[in-house]
Amino acid sequence: MNFELPFIPERTVKPRKAGVTMMMDKGLSLRETENFIEANAHLTDIVKFGFGTSFVTQNLEEKIKLYQEAGIRPYFGGTLFEVFYARGEFENYLRVCDKYNLDLAEISDGSIIIDHNEKCELIRRMAKDRTVLSEVGSKDSGILISPAKWIKMMSTELEAGSWKVIAEGRESGNVGVFRPNGTAHTMLINRIIAKVNPDDILWEAPQKNQQVWFIKLFGANVNLGNIAPYEMIPLECLRLGLRGDTFFEFLPDDYAERLKQVNSEEEE
After folding, report:
1. Which helix or strand (DSSP H or E) is residue 104 part of?
2. CB 92, CB 84: distance < 8 Å
3. What local confidence, expressed as pLDDT, does residue 137 receive?
4. CA separation for the pair 186, 224 (Å, rounded)
5. Which end of the chain is more exposed for a tag (fewer CB within 10 A), N or C?
Protein backbone atom coordinates (compact mmCIF):
# COMPACT_ATOMS: atom_id res chain seq x y z
CA MET A 1 0.00 0.00 0.00
CA ASN A 2 1.10 3.59 -0.57
CA PHE A 3 0.88 4.66 3.07
CA GLU A 4 -0.02 3.28 6.49
CA LEU A 5 -3.47 3.31 8.06
CA PRO A 6 -4.69 1.60 11.23
CA PHE A 7 -7.66 -0.76 11.28
CA ILE A 8 -7.21 -1.95 7.71
CA PRO A 9 -8.03 -5.68 7.48
CA GLU A 10 -5.17 -7.98 6.59
CA ARG A 11 -5.42 -9.24 3.04
CA THR A 12 -4.02 -12.50 1.82
CA VAL A 13 -1.22 -12.26 -0.74
CA LYS A 14 -0.68 -14.02 -4.06
CA PRO A 15 -0.80 -16.90 -4.67
CA ARG A 16 -4.00 -16.81 -2.66
CA LYS A 17 -6.12 -19.69 -1.43
CA ALA A 18 -8.68 -17.29 0.04
CA GLY A 19 -9.55 -13.74 -0.92
CA VAL A 20 -9.29 -14.68 -4.60
CA THR A 21 -10.51 -12.16 -7.16
CA MET A 22 -11.50 -13.28 -10.65
CA MET A 23 -11.75 -10.66 -13.39
CA MET A 24 -14.01 -11.36 -16.35
CA ASP A 25 -12.38 -10.44 -19.66
CA LYS A 26 -15.05 -10.08 -22.33
CA GLY A 27 -12.74 -8.91 -25.11
CA LEU A 28 -10.04 -6.52 -23.93
CA SER A 29 -7.56 -5.49 -26.60
CA LEU A 30 -3.84 -6.08 -26.14
CA ARG A 31 -3.33 -2.42 -25.20
CA GLU A 32 -6.25 -2.57 -22.76
CA THR A 33 -4.81 -5.76 -21.29
CA GLU A 34 -1.45 -4.08 -20.76
CA ASN A 35 -3.15 -1.11 -19.10
CA PHE A 36 -5.23 -3.43 -16.93
CA ILE A 37 -2.13 -5.31 -15.80
CA GLU A 38 -0.27 -2.11 -14.97
CA ALA A 39 -3.09 -0.98 -12.68
CA ASN A 40 -4.46 -4.25 -11.33
CA ALA A 41 -2.02 -7.18 -11.55
CA HIS A 42 -1.35 -7.08 -7.80
CA LEU A 43 -5.07 -7.44 -7.11
CA THR A 44 -5.96 -10.02 -9.75
CA ASP A 45 -5.55 -13.75 -9.17
CA ILE A 46 -7.34 -15.27 -12.14
CA VAL A 47 -8.90 -14.01 -15.38
CA LYS A 48 -11.79 -15.71 -17.11
CA PHE A 49 -12.25 -15.23 -20.83
CA GLY A 50 -16.03 -14.86 -20.60
CA PHE A 51 -18.35 -17.36 -22.29
CA GLY A 52 -17.09 -18.00 -25.85
CA THR A 53 -15.11 -14.80 -26.35
CA SER A 54 -11.79 -16.66 -26.66
CA PHE A 55 -13.03 -18.14 -29.96
CA VAL A 56 -13.27 -14.71 -31.61
CA THR A 57 -10.77 -12.59 -29.64
CA GLN A 58 -7.79 -11.43 -31.68
CA ASN A 59 -4.25 -11.92 -30.38
CA LEU A 60 -5.46 -14.51 -27.88
CA GLU A 61 -2.08 -16.16 -27.44
CA GLU A 62 -0.39 -12.81 -26.81
CA LYS A 63 -3.04 -11.86 -24.26
CA ILE A 64 -2.61 -15.12 -22.39
CA LYS A 65 1.15 -14.59 -22.22
CA LEU A 66 0.70 -11.05 -20.93
CA TYR A 67 -1.48 -12.27 -18.08
CA GLN A 68 0.81 -15.17 -17.23
CA GLU A 69 3.94 -13.01 -17.23
CA ALA A 70 2.15 -10.68 -14.80
CA GLY A 71 1.45 -13.56 -12.38
CA ILE A 72 -2.23 -13.85 -13.34
CA ARG A 73 -3.76 -17.20 -14.28
CA PRO A 74 -6.11 -16.96 -17.29
CA TYR A 75 -8.62 -19.62 -18.33
CA PHE A 76 -11.51 -20.22 -20.69
CA GLY A 77 -15.01 -19.67 -19.30
CA GLY A 78 -17.17 -22.68 -18.55
CA THR A 79 -19.55 -21.96 -21.41
CA LEU A 80 -16.75 -22.64 -23.90
CA PHE A 81 -16.20 -26.03 -22.26
CA GLU A 82 -19.92 -26.72 -22.69
CA VAL A 83 -19.76 -25.67 -26.35
CA PHE A 84 -17.03 -28.25 -26.97
CA TYR A 85 -18.69 -30.93 -24.83
CA ALA A 86 -22.10 -30.53 -26.51
CA ARG A 87 -20.43 -31.19 -29.87
CA GLY A 88 -18.59 -34.29 -28.66
CA GLU A 89 -15.29 -32.39 -28.74
CA PHE A 90 -14.05 -32.83 -25.15
CA GLU A 91 -10.71 -34.27 -26.24
CA ASN A 92 -10.24 -31.35 -28.61
CA TYR A 93 -11.03 -28.97 -25.74
CA LEU A 94 -8.16 -30.47 -23.74
CA ARG A 95 -5.86 -30.03 -26.72
CA VAL A 96 -6.89 -26.37 -27.03
CA CYS A 97 -6.11 -25.79 -23.33
CA ASP A 98 -2.72 -27.41 -23.86
CA LYS A 99 -2.09 -25.38 -27.01
CA TYR A 100 -2.45 -22.16 -25.04
CA ASN A 101 -0.54 -23.49 -22.03
CA LEU A 102 -3.45 -22.97 -19.63
CA ASP A 103 -2.95 -24.61 -16.24
CA LEU A 104 -6.44 -23.57 -15.08
CA ALA A 105 -9.71 -24.84 -16.55
CA GLU A 106 -13.41 -24.59 -15.78
CA ILE A 107 -16.07 -27.28 -16.05
CA SER A 108 -19.68 -26.16 -15.90
CA ASP A 109 -23.15 -27.30 -16.87
CA GLY A 110 -25.06 -24.04 -16.67
CA SER A 111 -26.36 -24.13 -20.24
CA ILE A 112 -26.61 -27.89 -20.83
CA ILE A 113 -27.42 -30.87 -18.63
CA ILE A 114 -24.53 -33.18 -17.80
CA ASP A 115 -25.05 -36.22 -15.61
CA HIS A 116 -23.42 -35.28 -12.32
CA ASN A 117 -21.42 -38.49 -12.06
CA GLU A 118 -20.08 -37.78 -15.55
CA LYS A 119 -19.24 -34.20 -14.56
CA CYS A 120 -17.30 -35.43 -11.51
CA GLU A 121 -15.43 -37.92 -13.69
CA LEU A 122 -14.48 -35.08 -16.06
CA ILE A 123 -13.24 -33.09 -13.06
CA ARG A 124 -11.15 -36.03 -11.84
CA ARG A 125 -9.65 -36.48 -15.27
CA MET A 126 -8.80 -32.82 -15.80
CA ALA A 127 -7.48 -32.38 -12.24
CA LYS A 128 -4.65 -34.81 -13.02
CA ASP A 129 -2.99 -32.25 -15.30
CA ARG A 130 -4.35 -28.84 -14.30
CA THR A 131 -6.19 -26.87 -11.64
CA VAL A 132 -9.94 -27.19 -12.04
CA LEU A 133 -12.74 -24.79 -11.24
CA SER A 134 -16.22 -26.26 -11.43
CA GLU A 135 -19.40 -24.23 -11.56
CA VAL A 136 -22.65 -25.12 -9.83
CA GLY A 137 -26.01 -23.60 -10.76
CA SER A 138 -28.03 -22.99 -13.90
CA LYS A 139 -27.94 -19.90 -16.12
CA ASP A 140 -31.68 -20.38 -16.66
CA SER A 141 -33.64 -18.50 -13.99
CA GLY A 142 -36.51 -20.92 -14.50
CA ILE A 143 -34.46 -23.89 -13.26
CA LEU A 144 -34.56 -24.06 -9.47
CA ILE A 145 -32.07 -26.20 -7.55
CA SER A 146 -32.78 -27.16 -3.95
CA PRO A 147 -30.27 -26.17 -1.25
CA ALA A 148 -29.62 -29.87 -0.55
CA LYS A 149 -28.71 -30.42 -4.21
CA TRP A 150 -26.44 -27.35 -4.25
CA ILE A 151 -24.61 -28.74 -1.21
CA LYS A 152 -24.32 -32.23 -2.65
CA MET A 153 -23.01 -31.02 -6.00
CA MET A 154 -20.50 -28.64 -4.45
CA SER A 155 -19.25 -31.25 -1.99
CA THR A 156 -18.85 -34.03 -4.54
CA GLU A 157 -17.14 -31.74 -7.06
CA LEU A 158 -14.63 -30.64 -4.43
CA GLU A 159 -14.05 -34.29 -3.56
CA ALA A 160 -13.53 -35.04 -7.27
CA GLY A 161 -10.68 -32.55 -7.40
CA SER A 162 -12.05 -29.04 -7.93
CA TRP A 163 -9.84 -26.32 -6.45
CA LYS A 164 -12.88 -24.04 -6.04
CA VAL A 165 -16.54 -24.44 -6.84
CA ILE A 166 -18.06 -21.40 -8.51
CA ALA A 167 -21.51 -20.36 -7.34
CA GLU A 168 -23.39 -19.32 -10.46
CA GLY A 169 -24.46 -15.69 -10.71
CA ARG A 170 -23.76 -14.90 -14.38
CA GLU A 171 -22.26 -11.61 -15.50
CA SER A 172 -25.69 -10.05 -14.88
CA GLY A 173 -25.92 -11.21 -11.25
CA ASN A 174 -29.58 -12.26 -11.35
CA VAL A 175 -29.59 -16.09 -11.31
CA GLY A 176 -28.15 -18.88 -9.19
CA VAL A 177 -27.40 -17.57 -5.69
CA PHE A 178 -29.17 -14.30 -6.54
CA ARG A 179 -32.81 -13.47 -6.96
CA PRO A 180 -34.02 -11.91 -10.24
CA ASN A 181 -33.67 -8.42 -8.71
CA GLY A 182 -29.99 -9.07 -7.91
CA THR A 183 -30.31 -9.48 -4.13
CA ALA A 184 -28.63 -12.43 -2.45
CA HIS A 185 -30.63 -15.60 -1.91
CA THR A 186 -29.87 -15.49 1.82
CA MET A 187 -31.51 -18.74 2.88
CA LEU A 188 -29.78 -20.70 0.12
CA ILE A 189 -26.36 -19.22 0.87
CA ASN A 190 -26.70 -19.83 4.61
CA ARG A 191 -27.64 -23.45 3.96
CA ILE A 192 -24.65 -23.89 1.66
CA ILE A 193 -22.04 -22.41 4.01
CA ALA A 194 -23.33 -24.54 6.88
CA LYS A 195 -21.99 -27.58 4.98
CA VAL A 196 -19.36 -26.27 2.54
CA ASN A 197 -16.26 -24.31 3.59
CA PRO A 198 -16.71 -20.75 2.21
CA ASP A 199 -12.98 -20.67 1.33
CA ASP A 200 -13.72 -23.41 -1.22
CA ILE A 201 -16.41 -21.32 -2.94
CA LEU A 202 -15.91 -18.53 -5.47
CA TRP A 203 -19.03 -16.36 -5.56
CA GLU A 204 -19.87 -14.70 -8.87
CA ALA A 205 -20.79 -11.18 -7.76
CA PRO A 206 -20.68 -8.63 -10.60
CA GLN A 207 -22.77 -5.98 -8.85
CA LYS A 208 -21.42 -3.69 -6.12
CA ASN A 209 -24.30 -4.40 -3.73
CA GLN A 210 -23.55 -8.13 -4.06
CA GLN A 211 -19.85 -7.61 -3.35
CA VAL A 212 -20.73 -5.54 -0.28
CA TRP A 213 -23.11 -8.22 0.96
CA PHE A 214 -20.48 -10.98 0.73
CA ILE A 215 -17.75 -8.83 2.32
CA LYS A 216 -20.04 -8.02 5.24
CA LEU A 217 -20.84 -11.71 5.65
CA PHE A 218 -17.37 -13.24 5.18
CA GLY A 219 -14.90 -10.37 5.59
CA ALA A 220 -12.19 -8.96 3.36
CA ASN A 221 -10.91 -12.32 2.13
CA VAL A 222 -14.00 -13.72 0.47
CA ASN A 223 -13.54 -15.22 -3.02
CA LEU A 224 -15.33 -13.10 -5.63
CA GLY A 225 -15.63 -13.40 -9.40
CA ASN A 226 -17.10 -11.95 -12.58
CA ILE A 227 -15.57 -8.60 -11.66
CA ALA A 228 -15.36 -6.07 -14.49
CA PRO A 229 -11.84 -4.84 -15.36
CA TYR A 230 -12.55 -1.28 -14.23
CA GLU A 231 -14.06 -2.51 -10.93
CA MET A 232 -10.97 -4.25 -9.54
CA ILE A 233 -9.61 -1.31 -7.53
CA PRO A 234 -13.09 -0.24 -6.35
CA LEU A 235 -13.66 -3.82 -5.15
CA GLU A 236 -10.36 -3.83 -3.26
CA CYS A 237 -11.43 -0.61 -1.56
CA LEU A 238 -14.65 -2.35 -0.50
CA ARG A 239 -12.59 -5.24 0.88
CA LEU A 240 -10.48 -2.83 2.95
CA GLY A 241 -13.23 -0.57 4.27
CA LEU A 242 -12.15 2.34 2.08
CA ARG A 243 -15.61 3.04 0.65
CA GLY A 244 -18.78 4.20 2.33
CA ASP A 245 -20.50 0.85 1.87
CA THR A 246 -18.00 -0.97 4.13
CA PHE A 247 -16.60 2.04 5.99
CA PHE A 248 -17.50 0.80 9.49
CA GLU A 249 -16.91 -2.91 8.92
CA PHE A 250 -13.31 -3.00 10.13
CA LEU A 251 -13.24 -0.16 12.65
CA PRO A 252 -13.23 -1.12 16.35
CA ASP A 253 -16.73 -1.07 17.83
CA ASP A 254 -16.07 1.96 20.03
CA TYR A 255 -14.79 3.98 17.05
CA ALA A 256 -17.71 2.99 14.89
CA GLU A 257 -20.32 3.73 17.53
CA ARG A 258 -18.77 7.12 18.36
CA LEU A 259 -18.63 8.15 14.70
CA LYS A 260 -22.16 6.99 14.02
CA GLN A 261 -23.37 8.94 17.04
CA VAL A 262 -21.61 12.11 15.87
CA ASN A 263 -23.15 11.74 12.42
CA SER A 264 -26.58 11.24 13.95
CA GLU A 265 -26.21 14.37 16.14
CA GLU A 266 -25.10 16.44 13.15
CA GLU A 267 -28.12 15.33 11.14
CA GLU A 268 -30.41 16.42 13.99
Report:
1. strand 104-107
2. yes
3. 78
4. 17
5. C
Q: How far apart are CA 23 and CA 195, in angstroms?
A: 27
Q: Which of 180, 187, 54, 165 is nearest to 119 (CA)?
A: 165
Q: Does domain 21-267 have CATH number 3.40.50.11540?
A: no
Choose among 230, 242, 250: nearest CA to 43: 230
Task: Please state, as a whole number, how many other Cβ atoms lie within 10 Å of the Cβ of residue 148.
Answer: 10
Q: Above 80 in pLDDT, residue 102?
A: yes
Question: What pTM, to 2 d.p., does this model score?
Answer: 0.92
168 pLDDT more than 70: yes
Bridge partners of residue 134, in order along the sequence: 107, 165
3-state secondary structure of 146: coil
CB-based contact 76:54 (threshold 8 Å): yes
What mean pLDDT do residues 237-259 have? Answer: 89
- Every domain of the chain and the residues it spans: 21-267
pLDDT at 138: 65
The CB density around residue 217, as the number of other CB atoms within 10 Å, is 15
pLDDT digits (tens, 9 = 90+) for 139-152: 555 666 888 999 99
Edge-to-edge, what's the strand order for the sheet holding 104-107? Answer: 73-76, 46-49, 21-25, 224-227, 201-204, 162-167, 131-136, 104-107
